[in-house]
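COMPLEX REQUEST
Ligand: zinc ion
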Amino acid sequence: MEAVLLNSGGIDTLASIVAMKEADSELVLHSLTVWIGQKNFGPAHRAAQEIAGKHCVTTDLMLLGDFAFKENGAFKIPYRMVLFHMAAAIKARHYGVEYIISGIDDGFSENFGRKVTDMLTEESRAPYAPVVICPVRKLSRGERIFLAKKDPLFPITVSCEEAEPCCVCQKCLDRRAAGIA
Ligand SMILES: [Zn+2]
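STATUS: Structure written out below.
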């Protein structure tokens, strides 16, 4: 299989790679990191580049602008899932590959991937559009960490969405429980 990998530099991205490579040792990946205003962009991008350097044949960065804003005091980037997957679909078309691998499962329902494919097919009137696969969607946090830990790059992943690890969000707590800062 050949696919575009949505690469956030995080544990879920690494867990997705490990899961997919265990299922298909011939897997060819094109890394895509998308910036839409995430506060952790600098460290997350560096982690994504390391992951891409090891696992991917090409690496791309799309800077789509700052969509982040504060709503009721909280940092928000609404509709980010759609933005990430549209960006990946464009790269998939560019590279002529049929799959998108997404470890970004924030709000990823069972039907999300199929709806993305339907929407793209509708616009392009092409016989097919990239198929979205989220290998970690049904896995618990512990199962994701178990998979990601199989790769030596596990400690360099970046999970917290703050500019610096906040030490209080669930992702920071998961990392501490897994023995990495
Ligand atoms: Zn945090």
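REMARKS: The radius of gyration is 16 Å. The mean pLDDT is 91.
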